[in-house]
Design brief:
This protein is of the alpha/beta class. It is built from eleven helices and 15 strands. It folds into two domains: 207 residues, DHBP synthase; 94 residues, Rossmann fold (3-Layer(aba) Sandwich), CATH 3.40.50. It binds threonylcarbamoyladenylate and magnesium ion. Threonylcarbamoyladenylate binds next to strand 5, strand 6 and strand 10.
């Protein structure tokens, strides 16, 4: 199968609709990362997504809808705080988990009695969702465990020959996946940190928890139980105060004939000038935007990628650190 990469024009949208109605899978741009979309009402289409990615059967998908889609068709009920959050942040990088009305394919939620809904703000995603006027079940468009895609080329690298079409919207401005927020309880609870932060949610909802699975419990957001976002080279991880050890690690790799590369924030990069470095940037937003492209870039060049943890920890950095820890296999 030839994989076409088309911009968002009338003909490519019509083609995307044709594929979706035939239960084929279409990749599309969003403001966070590219998605691998299928008709959420179709068992066959949703199962294709799991098969293509090699995704574990217990990791549910997000249903994406356009901004005017009536989500009361898909969910059982909505707490008042969730309606307020929806008005404040959607369309945008916030996924909301509701009690499910069980209308979409049971494979979307993997047997959970909840449904995750997202209204992306990307004009390409909106145009695509309008064109099909269906909920589109879509995980990030990467092979399971690989780094999420932030360009059409990244999607192509993982799926060429396996999907018919990628709707190209250029590089994703957000760069890390949406915040996943459980809206089934009294108080909203963050299941996956992202660009909509706990502070932003608490300001609207009055309060916002952060979910941490208890020992032995099935996690509420099964995806967070897996190693994820991993570059295909060896990795090492150091705290900011362990810079000397990180340099030692770099030198050992060089001495052994390898190609080590550092991944760190701009300020530390400047101090590591004689070594090969990939610059994450200065602000949390910049680090979010650059992270996945740098990880994909690194895996092509480095035998060992050595990260030094950025100093900031709050706000958007919570999401960036979560992805960094998972990519480098750091359990927190
Ligand atoms: O930004 C994003 O969210 C991107 C773009 C394509 O929209 N999508 C994305 O999907 O990151 P995926 O499948 O890679 O991650 C979805 C996350 C997983 O951690 C999954 O476990 C969680 O959302 N999730 C999905 N449905 C859920 C549900 N009903 N309850 C709890 N967690 C859920
Ligand atoms: Mg993913």
């Amino acid at each position: 199968m030839e994989t076409k990469i088309f911009g968002c024009r009338r003909e490519s949208l019509a083609l995307a609709r044709e594929y979706i109605l035939k239960d084929d899978v279409v990749a599309f741009h969003t403001e966070t990362v590219y998605g691998l979309g299928a008709n959420a009402f179709s068992d066959e289409a949703v199962r294709k997504v799991f098969a293509l990615k090699g995704r574990p059967a217990d990791n549910p998908l997000i249903a994406h809808v356009h901004r005017d889609y009536d989500i009361s068709r898909l969910i059982d009920r909505e707490p008042p705080y969730a309606a307020a959050l929806r008005r404040a942040f959607l369309p945008g990088p916030l996924t909301m988990v509701y009690p499910s009305a069980k209308r979409v394919s049971r494979y979307v939620s993997c047997g959970l009695d909840t449904l995750a809904i997202r209204v992306p703000s990307s004009p390409v995603a909106q145009a695509f969702l309008w064109e099909v006027d269906l909920p589109i079940a879509a995980p990030s468009a990467n092979l399971s465990k690989h780094v999420s895609p932030v360009t059409a080329q990244h999607v192509y690298d993982d799926f060429h020959g396996k999907i018919p079409l990628i709707l190209d919207g250029g590089p994703c401005a957000g760069g890390i996946e949406s915040t996943v927020l459980d809206c089934t309880g009294e108080v909203p609870q963050i299941l996956r940190a992202g660009l909509v932060t706990r502070e932003m949610i608490a300001e609207i909802a009055g309060d916002c928890g952060i979910y941490a699975a208890k020992a032995g419990e099935r996690p509420k957001s099964p995806g967070m139980a897996y190693k994820h976002y991993s570059p295909r080279c060896r990795t090492a991880y150091f705290q900011a105060e362990e810079r000397a050890a990180a340099i030692g690690c770099y030198q050992d790799e060089r001495a052994a004939g390898g190609e080590p590369i550092f991944l760190c924030e701009s300020e530390i990069c400047a101090a590591l000038a004689p070594y090969r470095v990939l610059d994450l940037g200065e602000t949390p937003e910049e680090m979010a935007r650059r992270l996945y492209a740098l990880l994909r870039n690194a895996e092509r060049q480095a035998t060992l990628l050595i990260a030094i943890e950025p100093k900031q920890k709050d706000g958007v950095m919570a999401g960036v650190l979560n992805r960094l820890h998972r990519a480098f296999g750091v359990i927190t």
